[in-house]
Structure formats: structure tokens, C-alpha cells
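Example 5.3 — Tripartite tricarboxylate transporter family receptor
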Amino acid sequence: MKKVLLFSLVLVIAASVLASYPNRSVTLVIPWAAGGITDRVGRAFAPYLEKYLGVPVVVLNQPGASGAIGTDFAYSKPADGYTLLLSAETPGVFRVMGTGKLGFDNFEGIMMLVEDTKVVVVPGNSPYQTMDELVTAIKENPGKIKMSYSGPGASGHIQGLLLEEVGLDVSMTPFGGGSPAMLATISGQVDFTFGNIGTVLDYLKTGDLRALAVYTKGERSPAIPDVPPIADAIPEMARYLPLTFPNCILVKEGTPPEIKQVILEAAQKAVQDPGWIEFTESSFYNRMHDVQGDAVIEYWKRWTSIVAWLLYDAGVAPNSPADFGIERF
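Solution (predicted C-alpha cells):
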């Protein structure tokens, strides 16, 4: 009888906790330094999430190890909905890159937020006027057309590896960050790079850069509607697209479904707020809010199966994806 009463008491307390969620501030962990796209998105989104959760949402930057430190920090907290993780794509490759032991399968999805379309850019005085011309040059000069990227495993590196995957041999050079990689292109040290539309728009307006293609299968960006999709010039790429690099809201595995539902409903209202919509439109971000719940983790499963093997096959990742049960795409 005592065991039954104790069990009943535990159920009553648990139900009370769930019913009262949230009753204190919620922490939104951003595993990157201030100033980047994930930080910018997180700080813009937090006030709207706060508005509809009804409690303060505190933004906490925990940068380091390509997001692994902040991800570990979020995972170290109880699965009670009071610690949320605003993640970028890197948990998909922590294990193969040796930067962390966690992956997206250690979390549960709430909602995708936004992604900033990638665009192929060349110097303003480049001889290449179209993506077709750049592709022709790469084919005629294997290993000699130079491309800059921020660092191993970063989005630009992944996109360059995909070029190689479809038979385009380019010379890729890391520059230690997105800004140095972009400046290397503007100055003509390299022939091209991949950048975010939000980053390159001002350079396109001044003529320092020229856009040749957006990194999509068929869609064009409203920011640069005259620029064609990369799959037009490289049809072989279509198999891997869309391969985006969005932000998403995650919670630790084991978070009660009732709490996840409260967070999801608040997020659904937040992304419909006129202020948030204006922010995303003015930044030319692609909204991915329809990807919710389990679909978030499913999205990253496909992404990981492509990218982890690309990095391993290129000799960049020291650990085989097979060791972690990651199937080849």
C-alpha cells in the first residue's frame, strides 16, 4: 500500500510540474559567439518566444569547438524544457570530426527557424560572367581554379566538396573564417567562394563581387532574382539538393511531450508575429518553420548521411560515419 501511495504521489507531483510549465525563465543556448548568423537569429527570435511563452527567455552564448561546447552544455541540463538549444548544422558531424560525442539523435526537435541562401560569388572584375563559364574553366583547368572557404567542415567547405563529388576539381584553401574567405575573393586571391546572401548583398551593390548562382535546385532568391540556381549549370548537383544550413530549436532527449508541446505552440505563434516576419524578410532569410517536431531530426538525418561521408571520403573527418551507424546517402 505504501508503494502505491508513493507512486501516486510521484505522479501527482510530476503532473503538477508539467501543468505549471513554464513558471520561471527559460535559457536559450547559442553554441556560437556573438555576431554570427545563429547568434543574430537567436537574439531576434528570443523576444517573440518570450512573448508567447510568458516568461523571460535568456540568451546564453556558449561558443567553441564548432558548436560542440554549447551543445554539451545544453545537454548537461535537465530535460525539463528550461534549457533550449538553438543549433546550427554542426552536431551532424561532431562525431566524425572528433569535436564532440553528441549528435542530433541526442535531442528532440521543436522547430526549424531560418536559413540564409548560399550564393557562388566571384570578384567584381572576374572574367567569369556566368556559372556556366566558371564550370567550363574548372573542367579545362582541373585543380587550378581557386576557391576560398572558412575552415574544415564548414558550409563553404562542404559545398566545395560537393563540387568535387560531381567531378569538378577545384583548389580549395581555408582562410580561418567567413570574412577572410570573402575578402580573399574580393581581392582576387581566389577565383570564387560560397557566401550567404545576407553577407554578400552590399558587395554585389558596390560591384566588389558578382553573383553567379544560388545554391538551390530550382528556386531563385528574391534578393537577387536574376541569379540562376546552381543546378542549372551543374545538373548533377540536383541529387544532393536542397542541402541547406538552417537554425533549429532543440530540447534534450527525454523532455516530456507536454512540455515540448507548450514550447512548440509558443514558437508557432512567435514565427507568425509581424515583427519576426519583418525581420526575416528584411534579412532575406528563408523561413523553414513548417519543419517541426520529429521532422527536424529526420531532416538532419539525411543531411548527416550526405555531409559526414563527404568529409570522411575527402580525408577531412578522422572517424568513419559507419562507426556511428550513419548510412551513406
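Remark. The chain has a mean pLDDT of 92.
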